Amino acid sequence: MAINRRTLLRRTGGVAAGLAAAGTLAAIEVTTPRSARAVGYVGGCQQPDGRYAVACFDASGSEQLVVPLPGRGHGITTDAGTGLIVIFARRPGRFALVLRPNQPPQIFTPPDDRHFYGHGAFSPAGDLLYATENDFHRQQGMIGIYAAADWRRIGEFPTGGVGPHEVVLLPDGVTLAVANGGIATDPAVGDGRTSLGEAVASDLVLLDRRTGAPRGRWWLPEPLADLSIRHLAVDRSGSVWFGGQWEGAAEVTPPLLGRLRRNGVLESVATAAIDGNLANYVGSVASDAGGRLIAASSPRAGAVALLDASTTRIIDVVTLTDGCGLAGTAVPGRFIATSGNGAITALDVTATAASEEPLRTSTVRWDNHLHRLQA
Q: Where is the signal peptide (predicted)?
């Protein structure tokens, strides 16, 4: 069942009642008409009263649905076939909220000795959800496996690293790419990492989702040992792009972007045009509908870099204050970006430049990630 901007009708009255004993939220109408001519977007946000929520808006930026969250949200994953939307807690949070057509929102949680890392990916059939988690007693990255029918946790396998962040399913429908950020976390410590040291042990790993068996693991070269690989996107060739966050000396401006090519070669994308202009922090990476373009945002720098995925050439760097959320639209060469000041902006990218089209300034502060709901 496809989701679109008319799929989700806003009904906020009574929703703020919060969590119910059965693990659902107060009843909210979520309907799915068959007219699916438009595409919508969903992202975590903070409302003017300070509470966190997940919100959906249409292609014009008009808000369609707002559902409160029990805490700060982070990444979103969806399954177009079933109409499921899942938003995960920001690490070291322990909730995931589910929106399912014609049913009230629902919450599920990991085991007591696990926390989420904010990202997940569905199986091709939409019956399984793979979530990045932390076994925080052993500081071991895990992929938790959940049955979408009832959100029972039915299995897990290790990522082989520390601090797994984003996970994406590759086009073969079998391989999961996982960004092991390399930073130990614990839910008992503030934001999860304050007192656990600053050593980084990051890698990019490919895992068979059926068995958990590794299909390959790649580390960055020594000069980039302090780069924490965090976010991923896949281009039309099947290359896995990554964006990192620098944990080393502040005066160093290393390349923050790179890709794992189909031939197994891991390469950094170093260019003076962006290396010094992203404030050593990439908050989101996305590909456009055709898989020909890559966008990378830095809310700290207030910038979005646009690249040609084939040549790695920098096309443009646009200014977007506190901009982080990125999603390709249904139109190749076009992205939607959201920012912490409420701005929703369309970015149209040609072979030589990018142009900005302000769509709307909402009352919420958009968080790090945005996801397109495919019709």
A: 1-26
Contact 359, 345 (CB under 8 A): yes
As a whole number of angstroms, the distance between CA 46 and CA 89 comes to 13
Token pair for 196: 């656990």
In angstroms, rounded to a whole number, what is the distance separating the alpha carbons of residues 148 and 284?
Answer: 26
Cα distances (angstroms) measured from residue 136 to each of 118, 157, 164, 188, 373 = 15, 15, 12, 10, 33
Q: For residue 323, which phi and psi values (nearest 5 degrees)?
A: -80, 135
Q: Which two tokens stand for residue 67?
A: 């559902």
Distance CA 14, CA 11 (A): 8
- Cβ atoms of 209 and 178 closer than 8 Å: no
What distance in Å separates the CA atoms of residue 158 and residue 136, rounded to the nearest whole number? 13
Q: Where are the beta strands (DSSP E) in 24-113?
A: 40-46, 52-57, 63-68, 73-79, 84-89, 96-99, 106-108
Q: Which residue has the tokens 């920001």?
A: 90
For the stretch 48-74, pLDDT in tens is 999 999 999 998 898 888 999 999 999
Which of left, alpha, beta for 18 (phi over 0: left; psi -120 to 50: alpha)?
left
Domains of the chain (ranges; CATH) run 15-282 (2.130.10.10)
Contact 177, 208 (CB under 8 A): no
Check: pTM over 0.70? Answer yes or no: yes
